[in-house]
Amino acid sequence: MVRPEVTQPVADQLALRADGLHKKFGAVTALAGVSFSIRTGEFVTLLGPSGCGKSTILRILAGIETPTRGAVAIGGKVVNDTERRILVQPERRDLSMVFQSYAVWPHMSVAANVAFPLRYRKVPRDQRRSRVTEALRAVRMEEYVDRYPHQLSGGQQQRVAVARSIVGHPALLLLDEPLSNLDARLREDMRVELKRLHLELGLTMLYVTHDQSEALAMSDRILVMDHGLVLQEGTPEEVYRSPESLTVARFLGVKNIVSGRVSGDSVVEALGGSLPATLAEPMAPGSEVAVAIRPDGFALTDEGSSRPSVSGEIQLAQFLGGAYEHEIDVGGTMVIAQSPQRLGARGDTVALSVDRDAVIAFPADESTS
């Protein structure tokens, strides 16, 4: 592709700005006032469970849906503004979209599928040919130019869909769970390919998924959503290590939520011991808390160690490939611990230290919200 390489977002250039997006479908509120922006060259992910409103945002940006209230600007051009009654049609928005279902036309060759947006815009034939070649080369599909979709695997069809989406050099690329129909290995391969394209071509991408691993691996920034709201935004490291609510912690894979009590500055009583912890907000000693502990925060305690620890009996140990996952009964509470090494066999009693950075205490009332 003949485009400048952009490996970092351009801080002073906004590719997208969404202000106060609301959307209702009858009595159902899909979006309850969502605002965010994306810098040119940035990879941003909307992460959340089904029904949280993330795909509705994409459809509004693409012009497939209209917001009940709010405004959208793409590349500095306002395409939606309910107050000023501005509504730019989808075909006049400088963006492309990759769907979950690939949406490649079965009666067209790979080349014809990729060329379609250029034909629609009446790009001259010689330019179409060179840009199709560049797009297919970018997704490593140039040798399949004359094949038809029925001759391609699912992963290859998705590459064709991506090539079609980038051939017009859009200001913004929208991706709506594009990997969910692929098997595990193809998902991983395509995840790497999408990130490579983002870096090599300087694409500005807004990606929608409910898969935490996809969001953490690919994104410059993640917006965690639920019930039509953005609960938290930040880098993958920020949202993973410092969730601002119990809901975000749960959605990012914190499987251990236990009851506890604040006993001092950055210390909670939980699991029958004193654990170092980060308090999500200032809380007085004696306050009841819901303690979130990441599974990777546990480690075997060396004999004679002075580090705070808890003891429990291993109920189950599973090998996951890159790590072991253990179910451990700690005083009647089952916790999940992940470790690069096996901590022991079923029935073994183990003493575990807990990393302070893996423990966050939230007000107890959050556990019921």
Description:
- The chain is α+β, with helices and mostly antiparallel strands and 369 residues long.
- The chain folds into two domains: 162 residues, P-loop containing nucleotide triphosphate hydrolases (Rossmann fold); 115 residues, Nucleic acid-binding proteins (OB fold (Dihydrolipoamide Acetyltransferase, E2P), Beta Barrel).
- Helices cover 23% and strands 37% of the residues.
- The protein is built from eight helices and 22 strands.
- The strands form four sheets. The chain has a six-stranded mixed beta sheet with strand order 7-8-9-3-10-11, with helices on both faces. The chain has a six-stranded mixed beta sheet with strand order 14-13-12-16-22-15. A five-stranded antiparallel beta sheet has the order 2-1-4-5-6, with helices on one face.
- α5 links the parallel β8 and β9.
- α2 packs across α3 and α3 crosses α4.
- The longest helix has 18 residues.
Layout of secondary structure:
Layout: E1 10-25, E2 28-40, E3 43-47, H1 54-62, E4 69-74, E5 77-81, E6 86-87, E7 95-98, H2 110-120, H3 125-138, H4 154-166, E8 172-176, H5 184-201, E9 205-209, H6 212-218, E10 221-226, E11 229-234, H7 236-241, H8 246-251, E12 256-264, E13 267-270, E14 273-276, E15 278-279, E16 288-293, E17 298-300, E18 309-319, E19 324-330, E20 333-339, E21 349-354, E22 359-363
